[in-house]
């Protein structure tokens, strides 16, 4: 893949919904370079989340080819999806433990919480955290897998504007420091403008690509 961490060639995803055939993706070509910062932009139903899931291996294409790194792919979802009965540090440690079965990880969970500014919340349960704090723990949990590719699905969707901006600032700073490739699925043009380039999807097709 040369300098690419993920490549889609003619990717299609087709499924049935009732009696209807749905083309969630229709012949998508996309390359994600090392250290890339890419927005998948589009309305609900445009195919951006399906493409994100294809990149991460959660959805198998109906047709086409996908190349991705064998290890080192991590997710940050719209909701933090933290394990509710685990403390912040236990959530991060658990992700590190799972990842270490496939790849060598060197980050200490406490170091990761310090990176996201939450070393003082290490022993807090998710219910004791604000929305922004929970999302920062989710970012630390993703970084515990030392990803080559970080995939974010509407990472600020459940946050107010100011908190969302702080979370995006954090992701940007961490990407520059740790040099992973970043792909963010969003419907928000303001979020997309923060990244180096954006791909707009409509009805499962790439209709525009813009480099900032």
The assigned structural class equals: alpha/beta
SSE pattern: EEEHEEHHHEHEHEE
Strand residues, percent: 25-35%
Number of helical segments with 4 or more residues: 6
Cα distance spanning the termini = 24 Å
What is the number of beta strands? 9
Q: What is the molecular shape?
A: globular
Low-pLDDT segments: none
- Mind summarizing the main beta sheet? 6 strands, mixed
Strand order, largest beta sheet: 5-6-7-3-8-9
Mean of all residue-level pLDDT scores: 90
Rg (C-alpha, Å): 17 Å
Can you describe this structure?
The protein is an alpha/beta fold. 30% of the residues lie in helices and 31% in strands. The chain has six helices and nine strands; from the N terminus they run E-E-E-H-E-E-H-H-H-E-H-E-H-E-E. Strands 5-6-7-3-8-9 form a six-stranded mixed sheet, with helices on both faces. The protein has a three-stranded antiparallel sheet with strand order 2-1-4, with helices on one face. Helix 2 crosses helix 3 (109-115), helix 2 (88-99) runs parallel beside helix 4 (131-143) and helix 3 packs across helix 4 (131-143). The longest helix is centred in the C-terminal third of the chain and has 18 residues, at 161-178. It is globular, with a radius of gyration of 17 Å. The model has no long low-confidence stretch (mean pLDDT 90).
């Amino acid at each position: 893949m040369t300098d690419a961490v993920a490549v889609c060639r003619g990717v299609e995803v087709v499924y049935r919904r009732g009696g209807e055939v749905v083309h969630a993706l229709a012949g998508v070509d996309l390359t994600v370079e090392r250290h890339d910062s890419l927005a998948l932009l589009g309305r609900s139903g445009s195919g951006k989340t399906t493409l994100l899931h294809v990149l991460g291996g959660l959805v198998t294409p109906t047709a086409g080819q996908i190349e991705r790194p064998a290890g080192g792919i991590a997710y940050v979802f719209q909701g933090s999806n933290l394990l509710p009965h685990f403390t912040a540090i236990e959530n991060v440690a658990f992700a590190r433990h799972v990842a270490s079965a496939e790849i060598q990880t060197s980050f200490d969970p406490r170091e990761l919480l310090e990176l996201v500014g939450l070393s003082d919340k290490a022993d807090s349960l998710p219910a004791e955290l604000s929305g922004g704090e929970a999302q920062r723990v989710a970012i630390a949990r993703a970084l515990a897998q030392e990803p080559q590719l970080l995939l974010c699905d509407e990472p600020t969707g459940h946050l107010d504007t100011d908190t969302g901006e702080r979370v995006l600032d954090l992701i940007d700073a961490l990407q520059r420091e740790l040099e992973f490739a970043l792909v963010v699925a969003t419907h928000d043009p303001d979020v997309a403008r923060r990244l180096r380039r954006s791909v707009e999807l409509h009805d499962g097709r790439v209709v525009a690509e813009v480099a900032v």
